[in-house]
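Table 4 source record.
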Amino acid sequence: MESFQPGERVSKSGIYRVTHESHRLMHQAALKADDIFPCCKQCGKQVRFELLHPIRDEQVVPFRTGSILEESA
C-alpha cells in the first residue's frame, strides 16, 4: 500500500489510515483531494497516511486542526 507523508498533496479524497511514530495507535481520517497531508502535534512529520477507501469530495468534512493533527507548514 502506498504511503504518504505530511506536506504532500492529497491526490484522492478518502478515508486514510494514520500511523504515528510510537506514541499513539493507528486511527483514520477523512481527507479531501488537493488538501495537504497534516503533521502530528507530537511526532511531527513522522506520521504516515495510507488510503483505505476512496470517497466523493462531498462526503469529506473539511480538515480542521484537532487534538492530534495540525496543518503542515
